[in-house]
Amino acid sequence: MKKKIALVTGGFTGESVVSLKSAEVVARQLDDRLYEIFKIFIYPGDWYHLTDGGERVSVDLNDFSLTINSEKIRFDGVFNIIHGSPGEDGKLAGYLDMLDIPYTTCDSLTSAITMNKAYTKAIVASIDELFLAKSFQLMDGGSETVERIVRELAFPVFVKPNNGGSSIGMSKVLEPVDLAAAVEKAFKEDAQVLVEEFVDGREFSIGIYQMEGEVIVLPATEIISSKDFFDFEAKYTAGITKEITPGNMTEEEVSRVNRIAKAVYQRLNCRGAVRMDYFLEKGSGRFFFIELNTVPGQTETSLISQQVMATGKSLQEFYTALIEGMWGG
């Protein structure tokens, strides 16, 4: 008998548009010989499924179920592809845990911690061979705080919402005179802001997942943007960014970053597929941690998709592994 899988998409933030695109790809690639897929749209106060006939069916939030043609449908598991809240920040995971419904992504604690860039950096700070750019976590944007950053950080700096995604609200600040405006922009997206020193390096992103108890690191993607940094436009507009998979690293660098990636995955108690972004500093060859994404994009051109295909594995095989991993398979 096919297992019933809820493919959840949408979300409460501006990243919902990316989530919808990811869900379209996942829905096409999931093995319909093994699974019966129900796409569930989750928006504030509005959780629903659209039947093949276009009927809108509300989700019963008491048990996360649907009733279609008088049949009560309960799910064996959830494929979570919601970027941002509530799929990536732990809210959905906590709800599903209370209902004892397995899901493909990290648990509620890991999801909540990794949404906070500053907290994540604090946890991974002691990992061997991994370096962190000097930074400040801001709870307010007062003039005294801005003045302290100018005194203690070397410019240029990156200013970003501490709990944001897809680089929304992020700025690269070259001169102190522009810092206050960038901080104000970031605070429009979040109640906390992270300011980090610029690392002069090449940018990479690497996927990590677990299958049958083994942590597997995918080939890294090198990101070469025609813009100053990999912002929202660069991530989702064709032609602005060149992505090379596998990225250009020496055998020693590949071996080293794989050790780091596994250590980060285990230190943060990750589950499912995550993506670690990092810099390879020019000159020193040191790896600098940027952030961890626990619900990475899954469009056909997304970094994780490119990395999976570079191993010779199909997306269908990969998604099957993620689903079966919910039950320890």
From TrEMBL:
Binding site for Mg(2+) 1: D277, E291
BP GO annotations: cell wall organization; peptidoglycan biosynthetic process; regulation of cell shape
A GO CC annotation given for this chain: cytoplasm
Record-annotated active site: E15, S166, S302
Enzyme class of the recorded protein, top EC level: ligase
Pathway(s) per entry: Cell wall biogenesis; peptidoglycan biosynthesis
Residue span, ATP-grasp domain: 117-324
Ligand binding (Mg(2+) 2): E291, N293
Pfam families (UniProt xref): Dala_Dala_lig_C, Dala_Dala_lig_N
Listed cofactors: Mg(2+); Mn(2+)
Intracellular or extracellular location(s): Cytoplasm
PROSITE patterns noted in UniProt: ATP_GRASP, DALA_DALA_LIGASE_1, DALA_DALA_LIGASE_2
Protein keywords: ATP-binding, Cell shape, Cell wall biogenesis/degradation, Cytoplasm, Ligase, Magnesium, Manganese, Metal-binding, Nucleotide-binding, Peptidoglycan synthesis
Family matches, as InterPro entries: ATP-grasp, ATP_grasp_subdomain_1, D-Ala_lig_Van_CS, D_ala_D_ala, Dala_Dala_lig_C, Dala_Dala_lig_N, PreATP-grasp_dom_sf
Gene Ontology terms, MF aspect: ATP binding; D-alanine-D-alanine ligase activity; metal ion binding
Catalytic activity: 2 D-alanine + ATP = D-alanyl-D-alanine + ADP + phosphate + H(+)
Enzyme Commission identifier(s): 6.3.2.4
Cytoplasm as UniProt keyword: yes
The protein's role, per its UniProt record: Cell wall formation.
Recorded family membership: Belongs to the D-alanine--D-alanine ligase family.
HAMAP family: Dala_Dala_lig
Protein name, per record: D-alanine--D-alanine ligase
Organism: Lunatimonas lonarensis
